[in-house]
Design brief:
five-stranded antiparallel beta sheet; extended; Trigger factor, domain 2; Chitinase A, domain 3; Alpha-Beta Plaits; 425 residues
Length: 425
């Protein structure tokens, strides 16, 4: 179905636009830039060029236009297209009232010096959501509390984080869990292996070391040399024990609370940990509520998700996955394919939820104020133990960082409205 949009104002030179609705989320614009506009652009470009370029045998500004056209015609055309297509595309979109979610695919470009410029722009748009049915969503209330064991476990984590390594006494043999400092050389078929020689390496037995090394070093003493066979790598390691250390945990007392910082006593530390754990549980519960609300909103309000938005969500997921895995560069093709297949349904659900929540926010007049943005940045800074300026700079440097934060604030406010009108079991 093609829709003839009204022509722009006279000063816009009567651009012609036809918008075809391919689907609820895709439009094809056929745009015609008037010939008088095109002719003037060509004329101005050539006049400017004649004044600036030096052509052998001619005084500045006196070279024949035909010669200028032969030499620079393709460059002039390319420059006009770079300027006119975006300019008139955005004017057409503004007149149409649709909201593109990605850059358009420009095709069928036809440019003539003495004729109009025509082109098509295929673009995905946000689906128009007239109404969002959300009242009376059924939710199950979750009560949360913090057990003493959870506080104790968190204290143990802190003890391990603030532990120190202490050299063991002379004559003490290596035991599981000890830290050892070693020099080693790798051999294959009796010859040293290039790159398999290290000095002063420190590692903990029973952590991430191969089991053959753990078994080979248990019972050894400082200064002793051991040989360990790594069968899978066909490698013989000759290892010399330089030092043996053990982890010493700090005592659970007021000194530990002071060492961690911000607490004057063990009692204060426990109270602080209790509040922190409780806040984490509240955030996790809110995330579960939001997930359930989005799922039920989608059931009540079927909506199509633009593929470009889904792909954007997919790329953000893959980037997060790579950071979590400590990888740089790109995932292996098969690995990426596996992640995509597994995450695609969730990515589509995320986008549908975003579309419904933002549509409901617009209908209810919900937005993110500058004060709310600042408060959220402060909260993020406090949680990550970074300066407010650093968090703000990080958001500003990320593509869509601040805008994404505003969207999240709006979504959270919309979720709160939905929860207020939910049926709680």
């Amino acid at each position: 179905m093609g829709v003839q949009l009204p022509p722009l104002a006279p000063e816009e030179n009567m651009m012609k636009v036809d918008m075809k609705e391919v689907s609820k989320i895709k439009r094809i614009f056929t745009i015609e830039v008037p010939s008088d506009v095109v002719s003037k652009e060509f004329s101005d470009a050539y006049d400017d060029l004649r004044k600036r370029v030096k052509v052998p045998g001619f005084r500045p500004g006196k070279a024949p236009l035909s010669l200028i056209e032969r030499r620079y015609g393709k460059d002039i055309e390319a420059d006009l297209l770079r300027r006119l297509i975006p300019d008139y595309y955005f004017k057409a979109v503004k007149e149409s009232g649709v909201t593109p979610v990605d850059m358009p695919e420009i095709e069928n470009v036809d440019l003539k010096k003495d004729g109009p410029l025509t082109f098509t722009a295929t673009v995905e748009i946000k689906p128009k959501i007239e109404q969002v049915v959300y009242e009376g969503i059924e939710l199950k209330k979750e009560d949360i509390a913090v057990a003493e064991k959870e506080i104790g476990d968190r204290i143990e984590e802190l003890r391990n984080y603030h532990a120190r390594l202490e050299v063991v006494g002379e004559g003490r043999i290596i035991a599981d869990g000890d830290y050892v400092q070693v020099d080693y050389t790798g051999f294959r078929e009796g010859s040293p292996v290039k790159g398999a020689e290290r000095k002063g390496v420190i590692f903990q037995l029973g952590s991430e070391t191969p089991s053959e090394i753990d078994k080979g070093l248990i019972g050894a003493q400082k200064g002793e040399e051991r040989e360990v066979e790594l069968a899978e790598q066909n490698l013989l390691l000759k290892i010399k024990i330089i030092e043996i250390k053990k982890k010493v945990l700090p005592e659970v007392n007021d000194d530990l609370a002071k060492e961690i910082g911000g607490y004057n006593s063990l009692t204060e530390l426990k109270e602080g940990l209790k509040e922190s754990i409780l806040e984490e549980k509240k955030e996790a519960r809110q995330a579960r509520y939001k997930e359930e609300i989005i799922r039920k909103l989608i059931e009540r309000n079927p909506v199509e998700s633009p593929p470009s938005l889904v792909e954007g969500e997919m790329k953000r997921f893959l980037a997060r996955t790579m950071r979590f895995m400590g990888k740089q560069g790109a995932l292996e093709p098969e690995e990426e394919k596996s992640f995509r297949e597994k995450y695609l349904p969730h990515a589509e659900e995320q986008i549908k939820g975003y579309l419904l929540l933002t549509a409901l926010g617009e209908r209810e007049g919900i937005n993110a104020t500058e004060d709310e943005v600042e408060e959220e940045i402060k909260r993020m800074a406090q949680k990550s133990r970074q300066g407010v300026w650093k968090v703000r700079k990080s958001l500003e440097s990320m593509e869509g960082g601040l805008e994404g934060l505003k969207v999240r604030i709006i979504e959270d406010k919309v979720i709160k409205v939905i929860m207020e009108k939910a049926k709680w079991a």
